[in-house]
Design goal:
Layout: H1 7-36, H2 43-50, H3 54-61, H4 64-76, H5 79-89, H6 94-120, H7 127-143, H8 145-153, H9 163-173, H10 176-185, H11 190-205
Helix pairs in contact: 1-2, 1-4, 2-3, 4-7, 5-6, 6-11, 8-9, 9-11
């Protein structure tokens, strides 16, 4: 009788174990980063808090920067983000697609604020954090492409506005700096920010036939 093949099963088990280990490391690292800052935490501390060996941490993530990158990506582009994106991709009407983009921006920055907001103030002291922010901004820019493509294909972009300029404006208006100034500095609610941003995106990117009334900013 031929021996049954077990390699795929064993591989799946190993992958599942590795993912569980990675989740434990990320969870432990996140708590330490929030409490002590990125620079104040060592790989050894992360390993101890996660209940794994230091070599295991290096084997899974390669470096402390690798851990920080994964933590930031999970905070920004988490399961809730994926749900918002899936809904947005099902919307073909230009104005509603832009309002969905405002909802995505709100979700991303609300999550970021609660998960890694304490590190933002120390970004100037942490070249690693600054470099990783550039990476996540590049990811955000690329993921927004499909929305601007939809606007272009629907011939909904403002008259005279190029596709490239529309992408740049869209990326800028949905950036974290505007969220920070309004929600963090000026104490707007997240609902107010989302409504205002949706209205602004419609006005900034769409030509007249594709606009409709949508209320004002903070009341």
């Amino acid at each position: 009788m031929a021996r049954k093949k077990t390699r795929p099963y064993r591989s799946a088990v190993r992958n599942e174990q590795r993912q569980r280990t990675a989740n434990r490391i990320i969870g432990a690292a996140g708590k330490l980063f929030r409490a002590k800052g990125f620079e104040g935490v060592s790989i050894e501390e992360i390993a101890l808090a996660a209940g794994v060996s230091t070599p295991t941490v290096y084997a899974v993530f390669g470096s402390k920067r690798g851990i920080l990158r994964e933590w930031m990506v999970r905070a920004l582009f988490n399961d809730a983000y994926q749900v918002f994106v899936a809904r947005a991709l099902g919307i073909s009407e230009p104005q509603e697609r832009l309002r969905a983009a405002a909802a995505i921006a709100r979700q991303v920055y609300d999550s970021e604020r609660s998960q890694i907001g304490l590190l933002r103030g120390a970004a100037i002291l942490s070249p690693e954090l600054t470099a990783l922010e550039r990476e996540t901004e590049a990811i955000r820019f690329e993921r927004q492409e499909s929305t601007v493509q939809l606007l272009r294909d629907a011939k909904a972009l403002r008259t005279g506005m190029s596709y490239e300029r529309a992408r740049e404006i869209f990326w800028t208006l949905t950036g974290r700096d505007i969220y920070r100034m309004l929600v963090v500095e000026k104490r707007w609610s997240s609902d107010e920010y989302e409504k205002w941003l949706g209205n602004l995106l419609v006005l900034a990117l769409l030509k007249e036939p594709h606009r409709a009334g949508g209320g004002g900013a903070k009341g």
